[in-house]
Amino acid sequence: MSLSVAMPDRRVRATAAVVVAAVLVVLSVVFACAVGAVHIPPGDVIDGLLDRSDPVTRQIVWQIRFPRALVAALVGANLGIAGVLLQGITRNPLGDPHILGFSAGAGVAAVGLLRVAPEVPLALVPAAAFGGALASAALVYALAWRGGISPVRFALAGVAVAALFTALSTALIATSKLFTQAALAFLAGGLYQRGWEHVHQVWPYTLVGGLIALIVADSLNVLALGDDVARGLGMRVERTRALLAALAAVLTGAAVAVVGLVAFVGLVVPHIARLLVGSDQRVVLPLSALLGALLLVLSDSIARVVVAPGEIPVGIITAIVGAPVLLILIRTRT
Amino acid sequence: MIEGTPLLEVRDLRHAFGGTPVLRGVSIALHAGEMTAIIGPNGSGKSTLLRIAGRLLKPQSGVARFDGRDAWSIAPREFARRVAFLPQAPEAPADLAVGELVARGRHPHRGLLGASSARDREAIERALTLAGVEGLRHRTVATLSGGERQRAWVALALAQEPDVLLLDEPTTYLDIGHQVELLSLLRRLNEEQGLTVLMVMHDLPQAAHYARRLVAIRAGEVVADGSPAEVLTEAQVEAVFGVAVRVYLDPESGVPVVAPVGR
Predict the structure, then answer these.
(1) Structurally, how many domains does chain A consist of?
(2) Closest A-chain CA to B56
(3) Which chain B residue's Cα is nearest to A236?
(4) Which residues in chain B land under pLDDT 70?
(5) Yes or no, beta carbons of B92 and A233 under 8 Å apart
(6) Taking CB atoms and an 8 Å cutoff, what residues of chain A touch B50?
(7) Cβ separation B84–A232 shorter than 8 A
(8) Which of A33, A77, A174, B116 has the CB geometry, 3.0–4.6 Å to B120, for a possible disulfide?
(9) Which run of H or of E encompasses A296?
(10) Nearest to B152 by CA among B127, B186, B120
(11) What's B25's domain CATH number?
(12) Is residue A305 domain-resident?
């Protein structure tokens, strides 16, 4: 009977999915380096990366497009992992740093800073965004706390905080006499002029956060069985949930600090991953990191080329790509 | 009476939810090898008592002990290697295979990275076999019948290799055939594997048939504690549940059979 091979088959599929996703991420980065105002054939992209090309190609590939694609990949990975963590701790398919107010906190902090002190060096905006994400995550957690966190309360508190901070950001911009281009750009999210310095800002978070997430993925599996079963299996449920929420907040904060608010990646990517490989978080987690990277690298490539020489904020592309994917999943899964 | 240190013991438990007292001074000692059922009406504090005994809930007053030690002085994983707890109607991701579900029972035995050892695989195999679900290991939880699902959860608890198994109304959503099947399984584990069993039960005839000791609680207090024949008297059942009943002794087993008296 075919059922008898279900488990080995699933393991093969999981490995295959992760390998294929990793290959696609590499190809998407090459693609991102190839497209743009100057088209560079993939072969020349490789030469450019390896410093075997002419100086102009080298300049475009190595100094502009490659670091920008790397930022997109790292940020996408962060958001994908954060989505898995938040969907795990809320046991809610709508768990996502955007929906649960983590990003909205970053938004209101960044916009508030630009509003209160328009002359502030733009370099301070990422720090404000990072702090805002952490602070609003802590606020959501505190609001959901009543002798313990219930996943439902956590989700509802997050939605409330998201609504409040989004309204606040909009109000700050709407009542501003200046047209705060920087604030709007931050809220829509984008990778315009992102380069190596931004790569260096994000990668430690992606690497360390990703490794910790992989280590704790098994606790997400245990948590999926419900609080009582998890406690019965010896898990300190509240402590684990707090750790996972903090990790999601740090990954989100590091991501939004660099690219602004990018919707839908954290929401959609874990669902696609689960659809492909099932609910084992030890597989869903790395796959979501890769698919998040893939989605954001491709979305950013689209954002750069469709209205060239202008750019569409990448947050809009991820929403345009992400929303239909989510709808298709909802309609075909059930 | 049984001598020695009780395996699981609660003393003078008092607990309230939102100012409403649920337990008002409950003491129970459970010795190794027992198969005991807690009975009582809805809201009498049975589940709270079980949760405190299983270290899921810290009592507001009183102590919970395991093997003579304060349960809360024992690390959670260590406790989980000795005591397994199955809540009422647990839920698992629908696409989870039975084998994977049962493997999660090894959580308290695993290190930080969650790598599974040969020892883990052995325990999982044993648990699958003991619970009679080894043939279902590749089936997903969603495709199981209620009875199969409940046995899969028992297998998860067995994979913990506990000394004590606590169950909160394990037969609630099962038809009578699957109820009997599950309770027979628990009795077999008790008799053949020496597993100590404490379960909250609703069904009095089954509690009487499968448990060797019944603890009846009402409004947060123990009102009767002893063998089924001692506890299930007409007067005591009426006092606990507030219904008039007639109690017969089953001619074959000598176990009391409780029948409500209609009006």
Answers:
(1) 1
(2) A231
(3) B76
(4) 1-3, 112-114, 263
(5) no
(6) none
(7) yes
(8) B116
(9) helix A281-305
(10) B127
(11) 3.40.50.300
(12) yes
